[in-house]
Amino acid sequence: MSKVKLSDSFNPMCPIRNILSRISDKWSMLVLYILHEKEVARFKELQRCIPDISQKMLTATLRTLEEDGFISRKVYAEVPPKVEYTLTDRGRSLLPHINMLIAWAMENMDGIMNDRIKKVE
């Protein structure tokens, strides 16, 4: 595996650092993964899939992902308004990397959990 050198990674204005921090927060990857599974989802569907996320945080996460071009938001002129979220091509291109992280986490979960228990004891 090649190592990528991030010469400005300690600078808060580093674009790579900025992008990675936005997709690696507590909720973004989970929202992207759910949209991958469902293909199209409404706000309440996403909220049901992530029961511990607040409405405010889900709204903020969706706005950030839309702002960065990972998801698209389609509003239908209905009463009540209908809004659907889908992955964009950019969002879909990130999914193989998220799947690799999930696979790595599953492979290492037992060891990590055991190490956490040892730290507590």
From TrEMBL:
GO molecular function, one term: DNA binding
InterPro entries: HTH_HxlR, WH-like_DNA-bd_sf, WH_DNA-bd_sf
SUPFAM superfamilies hit by this protein: Winged helix' DNA-binding domain
Gene3D superfamilies named in the record: Winged helix-like DNA-binding domain superfamily/Winged helix DNA-binding domain (1.10.10.10)
Domain HTH hxlR-type: start-end pairs: 14-113
Pfam families the UniProt entry points to: HxlR
UniProt keyword DNA-binding present: yes
Keywords recorded for this protein, A-Z: DNA-binding, Transcription, Transcription regulation
Protein name (database record): Transcriptional regulator, HxlR family
Taxonomic source organism: Bacteroides luti
